[in-house]
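Trying the structure run again after the queue cleared.
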Amino acid sequence: MSELFRRYGTGMTLTMLAGVAVWVLAMVVLPYFVMVEYSFHPNLTVVEMGGPKDHYTLENYAALFRGVDLLHWDFPDDFRVFLRTMWGASLVTFICLLVCYPVAFYLAKVATPERTAFLLLILVIPFWINEILRTFSWYILLAYSGPLNIVLKALGIIDAPVRWLSGSAGVLIGMTYAFLLFMMFPLYNALETLDRNQIEAARDLGAPTWRIHWRVVIPHAKPGIAVGCIMVFVLAASSYVVPALLGSPGTRWFTETIYSWFFEAQNWPLGSAYAFILLGLCVAFILLMMRLFRVGLTDIAK
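Done. Tokens:
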């Protein structure tokens, strides 16, 4: 803060801070407060609001878990969608980590600077296109008569076209592609700071490749792994466009359920409660990653 005052002066710094404060309050804090207020009220008509039926309640939060029978493994539809979303977001995060780790290591420690710059540019260029257009391109690729099935059938890998868009496969593929860079860049930034001499020393001492990665590379990359997992999981769990375009009624995402309660059922209190349940789960995942990888906020900020 003192650096801002020194560089820009008192007047300019206060003006910038005031602008940021107004923006955060108007665009983030106040809408959240409104949703919090909605989430603790029953769904009433305009005439009933403020009347005897209008009172604070936890009914909207309890609605997600009502009817859950762990003994017989029976869940209501909304809770089933919630579990599917958490499992799907976790799987997308794991796939992104598996795909991005070797690529990030190659870019950071194996490739020449010129090749690294070229490959990073190749990775970034497709993301200059709007997310909806990129998702529609996957819709075309994964269609029943689309290019993917044509190529796989020509290579003899499949005998009949696969309906990628009738299950979870299309959603997982689309989300993995959409959020790859959010795993790639934190990993690359963390691995780039690793001293190559540590790898060479471990290799000279006879350590196999897998042990070098397990004992040297991965511990150093823990902040990058934590940040990548956090970003991919949160974005995947809160994604709406990809599951809406590439999914099917049987692969409904929790964000689609929230959307339907808000705009189709016009039940804003229940939609708000569901949104905050999803937010709470994302915060819990962030804390879990920080504890699992034993990193703090300062490590993540690096």
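Residues 1-39 form one domain. Worth checking whether this holds up in the mutant runs.
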